[in-house]
Amino acid sequence: MSSILRSDPGRSVPAGAGIGLRSAHHDALVRERPAVGWIEAHTENYFHDGGPQVRALERAREFYPLSLHGVGLGLGSVDEIDRSHLARVRRAVDRFSPALISEHACWGSSGGKHFNDLLPLPYTDESVRHLARRIKVVQQELGRQILIENLSCYLSFRSSRLTEWEFLGAVVTESGCGLLLDVNNAYVNSVNVGLDARTFIDRIPVGSVQEIHLAGHARRVVGERELLLDDHGSTVSQPVWQLYEHAIRRHGAVPTLIEWDTDIPALSVLVGEADRAQRLLETVHGLAA
Amino acid sequence: MASLRELQSRFAAALHGQPAELFEEIQGDGIDPAGRLQIYRNNARAMFEGALERTYPVLRQRVGDDYFRQLANSYRERHPSRNGDLHWVGRDFPAFVAATEADTGYAWLADLAALEWACEISLNAASEPPFGVESLAAIPGESIAGTKLKLQPSLVCVSSPFPILDVWQANQPGASGAAVDLDRGAQHVLIACGPEGLGLHAVENNAFEFIRALQEGASLGAAVDNSGLPLDELPGVLGTIFRAGLVTGVVAGTETE
User: Fold this and answer.
1) Which residues on A lie below 8 Å from B119 (Cβ)?
2) Averaged in consecutive runs of 10 residues, what is the pLDDT profile of chain B (257 residues)?
3) Residue B53 belongs to domain spanning
4) Domains of chain A with CATH codes
5) Is B86 inside any structural domain?
6) Which of A194, A257, A259, B195 is the most buried (most CB within 10 A)?
7) CA distance A142 to chain B (A)
8) Measured between alpha carbons, how far is residue A210 from residues A142, A261, A278 in Å?
9) Exposure on the CB side of residue A113, measured as CA atoms within 13 A
10) How far away is chain A from the Cα of B248, in angstroms, using its nearest Cα?
11) What CATH number has the domain bearing residue B142?
12) What is the value of ipTM here, to two decimals?
């Protein structure tokens, strides 16, 4: 286990529901100050020296605890880790003092070409070692633990020798990271690559899950079958709410985020989804509103 | 079994249109691996195109969705993303458009792209507290020529033989979108971003060259000499850039400068 533990220089994220901050809601969030527990922002959107985006997050940060969620480090890439990108992550962390920092169990570039997408890894011992080594580099650079999110997948590899939960459990053990459990991704994978989502939720290490993501998905017919696209463009589906309830019974009252990235609706719609997650947390764990 | 390096290399080749070697690595489970892979190919293209669309909305409006998509695809083949941060994928687009549209009647599109890229740079630059014009008044007359002004980091200067600011303004949300007479002449544009957001202003050529010289570190005297700015226009230009909040530092010169 790494010696880097849960340092938390910012206000901590409460064990309640929050929303992903998107630029379409910058003004509305500060104007309306909805009663959500916390916000999450995509780290790469706030890399710049200044400008309206950065100012908007600085303002929002005054009112809400913050999580920074990275999409660009490509931790599982065999390419050398991009030190300048990592330095920018560190600068954003120093600037905004997030309570939580997260990235993905994915790769994103090969031979210097980036796909700016979250690409799947084979679940092998080699992938565990590689990903864990890179997570440790990031944790060393930031001086604190990060959370790693399970990926949504449209394919799986014949070479995988581990289940997804064995893979993530081994990464946690080897790197000392925590987990960001994306319940929608687990559901999407159950349809797309046959993951047993309940078993997945049951078997990832209890105590490692420090954040949950919820989002909507779309349906797409491919050949004779239907696949689910993790497009974050609609409300959370009923099966995902059921899995979420299962997840918080298993992993406790974990900070839960509503993500929405395409066809972004009015802020009140996200807040409505966050309210629903909050009510479930209160029902299952008897939390005060 | 392919190593992680080999697998990622094959996946990358597949995303670029050479999928054969990857197919044998994919668990089909009743779906053609090509169909599964196509989702990733679509995603990668959509991410790239989306970033270009956000940076170049006016260019897209002028050329139409189909041609913009065609340009984006060709650009992506020549200039794939080299960064995990998507904001930078559009950096070489103005030069690419210039090469693509050279010798056509659409060379002005490259200058429009340059203006939109300048907006992107300006929008994300630091903002420093502005100095008032009184900071200049405090400097002894004999030191003025050697004095240097520090300008806002968000200031970007773009010049074109075409009226690109007029085109840009005509295609903003709520504007008419009316065609602009491209023979109307050159425009020299200052772009800066302050608390109120992005501001774009056309200035005369001499004033533009004067401000650009200041930005590059020239003293007031040298900037006047290099730009050919008539001395009687100097107070007006200085007043304009101070009032616009573009000056963030005044370093008094010495008599010997």
Assistant:
1) none
2) 94 92 90 93 96 97 96 97 95 97 92 98 95 90 94 98 97 89 95 92 97 98 97 95 95 69
3) 1-106
4) 17-285 (3.20.20.150)
5) yes
6) A257
7) 18
8) 18, 22, 16
9) 19
10) 15
11) 3.90.930
12) 0.94
